[in-house]
What does this fold into?
Amino acid sequence: MGQGQGKQSMKDIKHFCKIFEYALSITANIRCLAALFTIAAFLAACQPNSTTTAPEPSLTQPAQPNPKSTSPHSQLIKELTETVELAIKTGIDADEFQTGSKRFNSEWAAGSYQMAVLGMGQRIIANPELKPLLLPLMEKAIAQLLTPKLNQFGTDAWQEEGLTTLNANNGHAYLGYTNLALSMLRFIEPKNQFADMSDSLTQALVQRTIAAPHAILETYPNEAYPVDHAAVLASIALHEQALNRTEHQELLRSQVRHFSEHFVDSNSGLVYQAVDATTGTATDLPRASGTALAVYFLSFIELDTSLELSEQLFTALINHQKTQRMGFSGILEYPRGTIGIGDVDSGELIEGVSPSATMFAIAGAQTFQASALTQDLLQSIQFFRNPPSFLTAQLSSSLSSHFDGPLDEAILLAMLTSRPQPTRMPIE
It folds into this structure.
């Protein structure tokens, strides 16, 4: 692009932004989603280096494994770690979130700590020299994760405290997320101050899983979500890895097999978002947000059956749900041909694209070493996370509202540092 063309493009961009800002001022829908993607396309087309694009990932032609090297996203990972560190030190309160639900606000606060622990643990696994810096933060996050205040959403739902009634029979499957964080800490530092809780909670989840008639625990009364049960199974598996044990391998194997046969839609290849724990039948559509997160959780279970299911679900996401909107890649929440609305799980849908599914899918791309896909998805996330500096404050705010707060920062850290599977050929 010549210098004259560059100046003209910048003028066009600023003019376009003024027009869109005016549109925002006269409509209540400040997240005018189609228009946001139009802006994205316009900006991409005007960038001086926009003539080259990353090749599309191909599941049928795997690339050769690359030698071990520093992550190409090391600077972003460092920035995310620093942001998460600050959030842990200052504390994450449910009131920071505006979901419109007291339960979901509390879930998101707990999820922020849990994902932060996973991300920092994965960083230590990749770079052991970071342990003195990150281990104290992991411990501080878990200390908060175990407080009655942060678990009040589960107490309100069940009318009993999940962490103090481990001998009871109620599911409390949300504790799978807590236990996965505890198991990660146990993996990094086996003799930690929370080891007894890790053992007790793992054993409780094992016993409840064995007793569940349809191989799924209820998260809340009359509410069961396969992705939450995947977190339960992942926490049990990682606990065993931390202690170098294999006593629950057969349980995990049978649970993964049941998950594959009963909780995955045969047409779309996606995981059902919700099921009835008393009958084992689906009560919600197959969706990408739960599927993409299940890909991540299942990768913790180092069994061939689990890794195969994780890869199978990831392949379904890429083959059927990956799409492009005005030059940006994203993951459709619902199977093609199905119309659905966004919710607290998927985030507000952008022409059918789920911000949550798009971000969760980065973990699968990292796990199965699909580096080009990671870059594509990350480019979309980054556009909303850090809008171009020349945009007006109002327009930047409307864009960044799709990616805001400690939960998203912690999730992106965990997804971007997801451990690759060395026994698998990279998917490119």
